[in-house]
């Protein structure tokens, strides 16, 4: 049921309250800092939306018929394609993998024709054809034909293919890692929940080997920690330090505060619930103030850069127009001498630069010569950078200038080579779903019925979207087992790298090599 809700401040936190006529009042923590909420809200902006919607609706009825509908306000920034719902792990907090024995369980693995059809749907998006795809699951590397799936995606014209994976097969089978890289997978979106075995039992022992495979194949890595309060929120700084030790291959850490699925009482939700500001505050504490609360900006703060490039090009350009409460980010660089982090905000006037972009975009739209205006922008960029505080080997003004003048996918990629991106993305759940956020979502799922469904409709309301759609294109687990000649449980990972590791490694926590590396980076 769609309910009216009040979003309000209390004790410098933001809460959501709604009343169900059947179940009564539900109050939920929405955003852990009202001050940050106010700052981020200044970047609220609507995007271009879907100019070629797959679902035509005269009057907004969100979220009853997603796909994208004519009322959606953002194009696909990143499209997800589920290639299997099998997984070799059974993580207790995961919202999606096939569980044998459950009523209604199904095996979903789209065939090559369906994959190609979904990709054509993405590329047919207007005004911005989809250009970035994430292969997800389940565990994509369980598909023996995953390299062929990637080749189809590249054939259909996307520039960027990343894989959401636990990295276990990359660790165990370097040749498989090489095959997917050659097929066109640029990046691993690598699950990584902590630097100890206690916080990250799923792949603590395998991560170093997976990183090794990525080094050898030229695959870049984004660490993706699912952050759960009382479970691993004390290790956010350690995760960043471990990324710092591996910056030759790890170019980003994207924290995901947990989405709470299933029925949970208020006390249990309060135990596990953590929001974007809570994570940011912990990072400041756990990096000894090297990365502060003030260093973070909401995702739509990028829009002025898009606007000036778009005004110059006279063509619609890729934009990040999601709701300000959905996510945040910052760039940090390592000082070559002290090994300490230097956030972008410490040597660049970001706010001033964004205001310049917005002003010049308006001037071009008003008829001013766009070439002279862009030259003026590039000339003024150096004035926003304190070169004395800028890390050695970095020329920020030049990097911005390349993005503005070349306006290419490759010019934006240079950012990730020079620094470490820290991101936050808080996906919604049934307790905190906000339709104002949903209508601006730009992380979408491709489905075999040729719809494009926003993340927080697809997974938050699986009864309408994920399960309903995928069941139509699935077979039962029993049928799959008979066809393949194997049992579903045969694909579970048995922790082979943990056997014979010895007490020191098996003990995991303070004794593990990963923990040691993270601690060394702070010295």
From TrEMBL:
InterPro entries: Aldolase_TIM, GDGT/MA_synthase, Methyltransferase_Class_D, rSAM, rSAM_sf, Zn_ribbon_HMPTM
Name of the protein in question: Radical SAM domain protein
Family annotation (Gene3D superfamilies): Aldolase class I
The entry's keywords: Iron, Iron-sulfur, Metal-binding, S-adenosyl-L-methionine
One Pfam short name: Zn_ribbon_HMPTM
Naturally occurring in which organism (per UniProt): Nitrosarchaeum koreense MY1
Sequence ranges assigned to domain Radical SAM core in this UniProt record: 73-298
Entry GO MF terms: 4 iron, 4 sulfur cluster binding; metal ion binding; methyltransferase activity
Transmembrane parts of this sequence: none
């Amino acid at each position: 049921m769609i309910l009216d809700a009040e979003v309000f401040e209390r004790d410098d936190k933001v809460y959501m309250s709604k009343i169900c006529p059947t179940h009564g009042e539900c109050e939920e923590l929405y955003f852990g800092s009202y001050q940050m909420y106010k700052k981020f809200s200044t970047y609220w902006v609507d995007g271009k939306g879907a100019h070629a919607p797959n679902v035509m609706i005269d009057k907004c009825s969100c979220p009853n018929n997603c796909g994208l509908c004519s009322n959606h306000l953002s194009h696909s920034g990143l499209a997800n394609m589920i290639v299997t719902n099998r997984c070799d792990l059974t993580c207790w907090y995961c919202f999606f993998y096939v569980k044998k024995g459950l009523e209604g369980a199904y095996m979903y693995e789209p065939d090559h024709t369906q994959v190609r059809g979904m990709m054509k749907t993405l590329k047919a998006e207007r005004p911005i054809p989809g250009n970035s795809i994430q292969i997800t699951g389940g565990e994509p590397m369980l598909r023996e034909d995953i390299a062929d799936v990637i080749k189809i995606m590249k054939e259909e014209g996307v520039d960027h293919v990343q894989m959401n994976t636990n990295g276990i097969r990359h660790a165990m089978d370097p040749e498989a890692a090489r095959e997917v890289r050659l097929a066109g997978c640029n990046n691993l979106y690598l699950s990584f929940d902590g630097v100890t075995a206690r916080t990250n039992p799923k792949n603590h022992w395998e991560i170093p080997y997976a990183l090794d495979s990525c080094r050898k194949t030229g695959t870049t890595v984004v660490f993706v920690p699912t952050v759960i309060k009382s479970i691993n929120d004390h290790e956010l700084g350690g995760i960043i330090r471990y990324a710092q030790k591996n910056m030759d291959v790890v170019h980003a850490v994207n924290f995901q505060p947990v989405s709470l699925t299933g029925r949970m009482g208020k006390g249990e939700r309060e135990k596990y619930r953590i929001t974007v500001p809570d994570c940011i505050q912990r990072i400041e504490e756990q990096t000894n103030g090297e990365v502060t609360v003030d260093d973070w900006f909401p995702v739509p703060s990028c829009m002025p850069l898009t606007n000036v490039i778009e005004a110059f090009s006279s063509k619609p350009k890729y934009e990040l127009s999601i709701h300000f409460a959905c996510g945040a980010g910052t760039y940090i660089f390592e000082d070559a001498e002290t090994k300490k982090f230097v956030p972008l905000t410490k040597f660049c006037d970001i706010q001033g630069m964004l205001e310049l972009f917005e002003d010049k975009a308006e001037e071009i739209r008003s008829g001013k010569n766009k070439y002279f205006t862009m030259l003026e922008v590039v000339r003024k960029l150096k004035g926003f950078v304190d070169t004395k505080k800028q890390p050695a080997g970095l020329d920020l003004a030049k990097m911005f200038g390349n993005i503005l003048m070349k306006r290419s996918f490759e010019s934006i990629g240079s950012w990730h080579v020079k620094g470490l991106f820290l991101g936050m993305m808080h996906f919604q759940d049934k307790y905190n779903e906000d339709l104002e956020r949903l209508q601006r979502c730009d992380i979408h799922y491709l489905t075999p019925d040729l719809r494009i469904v926003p993340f927080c409709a697809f997974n938050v309301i699986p009864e309408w979207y994920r399960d309903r759609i995928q069941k139509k294109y699935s077979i039962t687990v029993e049928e799959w087992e008979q066809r393949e000649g194997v049992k579903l449980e045969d694909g579970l990972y048995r922790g082979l790298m943990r056997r014979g590791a010895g007490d020191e490694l098996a003990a995991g926590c303070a004794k593990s090599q990963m923990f040691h590396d993270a601690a060394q980076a702070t010295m």
